[in-house]
Design goal:
This protein is mainly alpha-helical. Helix content is 75%, strand content 0%.
Amino acid sequence: MSRRTEAESSGRLFGRFDGSLGALMLASTAIVIVAGLLQVSFGAYSIPMQDVWSAVTDPDVLFDPTVLGTLLLGGELPDHLSNETVVVWSLRLPRVFVGVLVGANLAVSGAIFQAVTRNELASPFVLGVSHGAGFAVLLTLVVFSGMAVFLPLFAALGGVSAFLLVYAVAWKGGTSPVRLVLAGVVVGTVFHSFQTALFFMADNLAVVQNAISWTTGSLTGTDWEQVRIALVPTLFVVPAALVSSRQLNVLLLGERTAQSLGMSVERIRFALSTLAIVAASTAISVAGIVGFVGLVVPHLVRTIVGSDYRKLMLGCAFAGPALVVGADVGARLALPVQVPVGIVTGLLGGPYFLYLMRKQHDVGEI
């Protein structure tokens, strides 16, 4: 291989990295680590920070495949582990891990939707996908509780149905950013009404309270079961999204330009939309409806690293977990009472959504 060819290959491989992206990744990782340590330090059984760090880095856990397998697959932890290690790893760290997985999935999903629709205001929440997936999960919890093991599948089906309905409502010889957003708001409102109606069908008060907590988006009570549910789809979705960054960049050029470059636009758009729906549905199936993460994170990352999806997608995979884990710690520790993380992200994302609408002269079009 010639030096020139080798240099070009290295440039394609490392072209997505620069100082701003590296700083974003480091800052996001630091936020997750600090927020995660704070998360596991406080509770009914408070643990000093130095003991928390010792428990998190306990070599009897990190370097013992049997213990790691027990955590991931379920089972009793061995007796030789300290009380602090058992509390941190079995009860508290799963909440942090779920927050990381939820944040990565929602941010990646929002970034994909914004490229597919060429609309900076698009997100799983705004396009109705979150409410569609939410209705499917809530229907399972309230009516078909015995099939809860299939929550990710039902969430994906609900998200797909909502997105297809949004496209059908918005279609008028084609779609536009304005019609997609408006159709998403309408479809989301309808599915939200269905969710509310389900509350009246539940006879068990505990089920109703659990459903209300779930619809606001909460990480309270999450354990290794939720980690297992979300981990496998995330290990597929995030790498697939990173690999698809070139196709997303081409879609941003417009449909005619993409077709002239040999892209099968409708097929690629459908495949990428499916990927985004799986990502959003995975997050919803374990944490409920955590709103506006898919809208806010891609835009914030875009202002730092630019619109190149090779950088944007990687930045979202780091910034999304930082926002969700940080917001969850704030919701739990910084307020007088513990509130669901979805309320905090909603309070942050709602005003930011209005800011974007005021800022963009083309109503969100990229």
